[in-house]
C-alpha cells in the first residue's frame, strides 16, 4: 500500500487548480513542488496555482525556521523574522505564505524513528544561553526547500543561520553525532558536505553562513538543503540526521529591506522634537521682530561671557562683527552663499554663513541647519551659536574653526595646505567616525548627514575634526528601513543604492566616510585623482590595490616612512569595507571606531578580480568623465569651510551629458 509519494523530480503535465490533483484535502501526502529547475516560471514552485500576478515586489526575506514570529535588532534596525512553527511535519509537506510570498517544501520520512505521523520535523532547545532565534530549527529527512516569489530581480546576499541543537559539546553519546548535508541556491551547489558543528566550532553555538552574489532573474529565489546520505543517522537517537536550519535572511545588495512592523512611539518622539524645534525657530523670529524683551533671551556663558543664546543675533550685531561683510573677512564660499569671519564685542570669534533668501534650496538648508544642529552637542560636531532672519538676510553663526576645512588642509592650494603627520590623520579619522556614531546611534534623534566629505569637516586650532553643514541632513526612524528621498549630495561620495534609487539609510554615511578615510590616508581627492587610464578615481584605484594586498601603496608619499604601517593598513581596509557596494556588508560606525582603535578585527572581504566596468560605485563617475573636461560633478573643491552641493541624477547616454544638474 502506497502511503507517500514524492514527485519532486518529474516532468508531468501541469495541473491547474480545477484538476482533482489540486483539490484541497484530497492529497495529503502529495507534494507537486519540484526540486530541480526545468521551466523558467513560477509553476514549478507554485503548483496548482493560476498565472501568478504580483501586486508588489519585495527585496528581502526573514524566516525563523521552526519557531514563531520574532523581532531581531540588526544593524540598528528591527527586523521581523516570520515563523513557520505552525507548519508541521510530513513526508511530502508543502506550504505557501500568500501574504509575504514565501513558502517551503519538505520531503522524506524518518522511517526508523517510529513516528508514523511524521509530526516532528521541527526541533527546539529548552534551555540555553544562545539567542532566541537559534533555539528552534526545522529539519528534513531528505530535502528542505525555502522559496520566495515576487522578489525583485537583482543581486542578493543570503544569510543562513545555524545552530546544532540536537547534539551536545560533551564527550558523551549525545555528542558523537555528525550531521552532513549540501546547500543549493538557485540550483547551484553552494555548500557541499556542510557540517554545522565544524563551521560554528561546536554544538549549540550560533553561526551565520553568508552566501553572496546570488542572482535573481525571474523574481524567484530558491534555497534547498539536501541530505546526501552522509554523517550519522542514529546518534544520539534514531532519525537524527538530514539538513537543519535555524533561520534564513535574504537582502538585496543595493536596496534596503522594508521593515514589516512599525511602532508609533518613535514617530511621536520625532514629531514632538520637530515641533519643539519649529517653535524655537518661531520664537526666535518673533524676538527679532521686537515682540519680546531682549533680556528674556540672554544668558551667562559657561565662562561668564554675556553671550546671546542660539537665535538671539540681530543683523546689526552680525554686520558689526564681520565689518559689514567685508571681503577681507571672507573665508570661504558655501554652496548657497559666502562664509565670513566675525568678532563679537566680547572677543568671541565666529563664522557667519550667509544664505540667499531668494533660493528655495537656501531656505531649506537654513531651516534644516536650525532644526538639526541646534538640538545636538558633541565634541566632533560643529557648534551653532545662533542665526539671524532679518530683511532679506538668512545668517547662520557658528564657532570659528581656526584651521578651516579638512579639504583645504589635505589637497588645497600649496599655500593653504597643512602638513598633517600620521598621528594627526589617525586622530582626525577616528574623530569623524565618533561624530557619526553620535548622529547614527547615540543621539536621541537618529540623523543621516547625507554629505560627508572633506569640505564638510572643519578643524579647530588643535586639529580636532568637527562635522559641519547639516543642510542636507535627514531624520532616520529606527522602525523604518530607509528613507525614500530626493537625491542630494556629491557624486563620488554618494552610496550607489542612494545615488541610483534614492534609498537613504545611515549606511550611506558609512559609504561616504569610507571614501573620506581613503582620502585622509592618501592625501588625494577622490574625484580629482586619476592614477592611470584604467582607474577613474581614488576609490577605483584603492579597489585595484586591494586585489594584490598592496594597501601601503595608497599612503600619502609626502609622509615618507613616517607613519604607522599597521594603523595605515587598518584605515585602508576600513575605508574599503565601508565602501562595499552592498549596504548590508558595510559596518556600523560604532564598529568602525572599534576597528580603527584596534579593539575589533576587520573581516577579510576581497572581491572577485574584475575590471570594475559594471561596478555601480563608479558608474556616475564614468558618466561624468565621458561628458568631457568641461563637465564637473561638484563645485565642492573650492577649499572653503562649508559647501553644499545638490544634484539630480538620471540615466545618461552618449548623446546626453546633462545628468548632473546643480540645483
From TrEMBL:
Q: Where is the Protein kinase domain?
A: 325-600
Q: Which one Pfam family would you cite for this protein?
A: Malectin
Q: What is catalyzed by this enzyme?
A: L-threonyl-[protein] + ATP = O-phospho-L-threonyl-[protein] + ADP + H(+); L-seryl-[protein] + ATP = O-phospho-L-seryl-[protein] + ADP + H(+)
The keyword Ubl conjugation is annotated on this UniProt entry: no
Q: Which EC number(s) are documented for this chain?
A: 2.7.11.1
Which residues lie within the region annotated Disordered?
Answer: 627-663
Q: Which UniProt keywords apply?
A: ATP-binding, Glycoprotein, Kinase, Leucine-rich repeat, Membrane, Nucleotide-binding, Phosphoprotein, Receptor, Repeat, Serine/threonine-protein kinase, Signal, Transferase, Transmembrane, Transmembrane helix
Question: What are the annotated GO cellular component locations?
Answer: membrane
Instruction: Enumerate the GO terms in the molecular function aspect.
Output: ATP binding; protein serine/threonine kinase activity
Q: Where is the composition biased (Low complexity)?
A: 630-646
Q: What class of enzyme is it?
A: transferase
Q: Where are the transmembrane segments?
A: 266-288
Biased-composition ranges for Polar residues? 647-657
Q: Where in the cell is it found?
A: Membrane
Its record classes its membrane topology as: Single-pass type I membrane protein
SUPFAM superfamilies found in the cross-reference section:
Protein kinase-like (PK-like)
Q: Which PANTHER family match?
A: LEUCINE-RICH REPEAT-CONTAINING PROTEIN DDB_G0281931-RELATED, LRR RECEPTOR-LIKE SERINE_THREONINE-PROTEIN KINASE RFK1-RELATED
Protein name, as recorded: non-specific serine/threonine protein kinase
What's the source species for this entry? Rhizophora mucronata
Amino acid at each position: 500500500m502506497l502511503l507517500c509519494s514524492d514527485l519532486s523530480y518529474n516532468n508531468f503535465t501541469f495541473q491547474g487548480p480545477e484538476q482533482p490533483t489540486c483539490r484541497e484535502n484530497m492529497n495529503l501526502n502529495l507534494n507537486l513542488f519540484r526540486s530541480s529547475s526545468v521551466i523558467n516560471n513560477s509553476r514549478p514552485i507554485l503548483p496548482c496555482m493560476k498565472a501568478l500576478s504580483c501586486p508588489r515586489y519585495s527585496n528581502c526575506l526573514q524566516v525563523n525556521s521552526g519557531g514563531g514570529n520574532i523581532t531581531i535588532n540588526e544593524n540598528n534596525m528591527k527586523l521581523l523574522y516570520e515563523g513557520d512553527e505552525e507548519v508541521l511535519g510530513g513526508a511530502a509537506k508543502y506550504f505557501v505564505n500568500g501574504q509575504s510570498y514565501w513558502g517551503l517544501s519538505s520531503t522524506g520520512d524518518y522511517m526508523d524513528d517510529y513516528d508514523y505521523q511524521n509530526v516532528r520535523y521541527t526541533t527546539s532547545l529548552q534551555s540555553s544561553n544562545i539567542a532566541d532565534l537559534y533555539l528552534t530549527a526545522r529539519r528534513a529527512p531528505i530535502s528542505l526547500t525555502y522559496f520566495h516569489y515576487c522578489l525583485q530581480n537583482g543581486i542578493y546576499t543570503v544569510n543562513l543561520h545555524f545552530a546544532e541543537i540536537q547534539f551536545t559539546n560533551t564527550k558523551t553519546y549525545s555528542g558523537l553525532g555528525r550531521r552532513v548535508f549540501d546547500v543549493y541556491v538557485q540550483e547551484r551547489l553552494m555548500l557541499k558536505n556542510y557540517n554545522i558543528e565544524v563551521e560554528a566550532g561546536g554544538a549549540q553555538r550560533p553561526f551565520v553562513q553568508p552566501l553572496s552574489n546570488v542572482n535573481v532573474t525571474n523574481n524567484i529565489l530558491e534555497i534547498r538543503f539536501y541530505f546526501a546520505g552522509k554523517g550519522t543517522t542514529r546518534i544520539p537517537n534514531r532519525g537524527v540526521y538530514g539538513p537543519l536550519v535555524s533561520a534564513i535572511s535574504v537582502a538585496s545588495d543595493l536596496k534596503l529591506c522594508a521593515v514589516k512592523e512599525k511602532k508609533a512611539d518613535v514617530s511621536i518622539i520625532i514629531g514632538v522634537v520637530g515641533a519643539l524645534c519649529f517653535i524655537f525657530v518661531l520664537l526666535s523670529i518673533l524676538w527679532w521682530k521686537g515682540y519680546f524683551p531682549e533680556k528674556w533671551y540672554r544668558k551667562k556663558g559657561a565662562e561668564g561671557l554675556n553671550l546671546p543664546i542660539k537665535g538671539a543675533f540681530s543683523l546689526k550685531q552680525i554686520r558689526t562683527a564681520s565689518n559689514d561683510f567685508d571681503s577681507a573677512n571672507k573665508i570661504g564660499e558655501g554652496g548657497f552663499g559666502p562664509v565670513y569671519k566675525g568678532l563679537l564685542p566680547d572677543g568671541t570669534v565666529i563664522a557667519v554663513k550667509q544664505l540667499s533668501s531668494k533660493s528655495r534650496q537656501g531656505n531649506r538648508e537654513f531651516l534644516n541647519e536650525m532644526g538639526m544642529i541646534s538640538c545636538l552637542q558633541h565634541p566632533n560636531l560643529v557648534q551653532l551659536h545662533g542665526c539671524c532672519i532679518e530683511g532679506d538676510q538668512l545668517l547662520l553663526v557658528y564657532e570659528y574653526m581656526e584651521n578651516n576645512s579638512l579639504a583645504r588642509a589635505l589637497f588645497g592650494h600649496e599655500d593653504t595646505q597643512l602638513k598633517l603627520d600620521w598621528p594627526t590623520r589617525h586622530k582626525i579619522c577616528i574623530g569623524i567616525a565618533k561624530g557619526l556614531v553620535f548622529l547614527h546611534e547615540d543621539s536621541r534623534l537618529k540623523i543621516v548627514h547625507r554629505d560627508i566629505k572633506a569640505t564638510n569637516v572643519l578643524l579647530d586650532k588643535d586639529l580636532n575634526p568637527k562635522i559641519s553643514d547639516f543642510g542636507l541632513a535627514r531624520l532616520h526612524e529606527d522602525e523604518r528601513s530607509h528613507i525614500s528621498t530626493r537625491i542630494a549630495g556629491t557624486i563620488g561620495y554618494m552610496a550607489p543604492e542612494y545615488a541610483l534609487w534614492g534609498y537613504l539609510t545611515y549606511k550611506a554615511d558609512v559609504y561616504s566616510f569610507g571614501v573620506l578615510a581613503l582620502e585622509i590616508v592618501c592625501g588625494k581627492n577622490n574625484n580629482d585623482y586619476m592614477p592611470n587610464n584604467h582607474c577613474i578615481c581614488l576609490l577605483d584605484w584603492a579597489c585595484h590595490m586591494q586585489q594584490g594586498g598592496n594597501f601601503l601603496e595608497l599612503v600619502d608619499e609626502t609622509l615618507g616612512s613616517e607613519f604607522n604601517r599597521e594603523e595605515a593598513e587598518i584605515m585602508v581596509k576600513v575605508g574599503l569595507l565601508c565602501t562595499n557596494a552592498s549596504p548590508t556588508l558595510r559596518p556600523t560606525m560604532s564598529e568602525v571606531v572599534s576597528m580603527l582603535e584596534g579593539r575589533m578585527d576587520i573581516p577579510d572581504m576581497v572581491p572577485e578580480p574584475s575590471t570594475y566596468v559594471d561596478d555601480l560605485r563608479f558608474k556616475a563617475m564614468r558618466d561624468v568623465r565621458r561628458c568631457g573636461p568641461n563637465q564637473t560633478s561638484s563645485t565642492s573643491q573650492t577649499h572653503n569651510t562649508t559647501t553644499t552641493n545638490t544634484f539630480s541624477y538620471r540615466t545618461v547616454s552618449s548623446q546626453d551629458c546633462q545628468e548632473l544638474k546643480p540645483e
